[in-house]
Design goal:
Layout lengths: L5 E5 L3 H16 L4 E5 L7 H9 L5 E5 L11 E5 L8 E5 L13 E3 L3 H9 L5 E3 L5 H9 L5 E5 H6 L8 E2 L14 E6 L3 H11 L2 H16 L8 E11 L5 E12 L5 E9 L23 H15 L22
Helix pairs in contact: 7-8
Amino acid sequence: MTVAPLLLAAGDGALALVQTDWVAQRLRAAGIAVRVVPVHTASAGYSALRTAVAVGEADVAVHSYKDLPTAADPRVVVAAVPERADPRDALVARDGMVLGQLPAGAVLGTGSRRRCTQLRALGLGFQMVPIDGDVDARIRRVDDGEVDGVVVAAAGLARLGRIDRATELLDPLQMLPAPGQAALACECRVDDLDTEHLLGTVLDDAGVRAAVTAERALLASMAAACIAPVGALADVVEDLDDEGRVVLRLFLRGAAATVDDGILRSSATVPYSDGPYSTGPCSGGPYSDGEPTDAEKLGRQVAAELLDLGAGALGTDPALRGLGRGLMGNE
């Protein structure tokens, strides 16, 4: 009996195709037959991919997680969040320069208010100009001398084989990435339990899922669209408890702009576990009390702290007014 291949919907653009192929390769390595189905997304972005899955034209949609709205779509479910690429932002600058080498007044291109606000907060005197287009188009702006540098997602550069163009990978202490940056979301129909189980078993990374859940809960709590000046990054880290045992904790950092383009920061941690003693004392690994991590609660906690600090009125860089929502790598 021939088993029908799993159909993976891939959106327009080089990055979307590379991301979908990355997922396809891992499924094939697990012995699963797959076929990539091109879907014309144009300005519809994630919506077109979801519709293709919902109507049965594909079984799975692969998204850049940061491009998805925080509101759930009742037609689909996120069945897997695979291992994450480097979540940092990257500088691509002329003459191989890093941020500290660029002169005051240097012109940096970015389509993101989040990046713009955090760059301004460094106090290095940069001028920011709005740019859009795919990764290669942005790099050409540097090569053609239109700007001194651009800031893009390191993951996008790496997935496209262009990470060698990065002149600096920006420390999250300087530049917190967008919530969900560098993570993928693999969605299937909400009633397709077999595919949901398969994707979860083969692809899902519980730690990455928890981290991205916390980041997106922060974003949702601040009622921000994915292009709003909010940064967040969560990690599962090791710590020692009061009895000297190694424990895992989910650590979330958040940043938000104020109305005058200042930056407010907050962070918090909670114990991390993806199940009872999954890496517990019997295995010699980090101790777990068996309680699943409430990543959403952590995100809401950090968001509440940022709002209490005065982040209720999100800043808007005048140079970037009028830009639409960032989709398919437009951050």
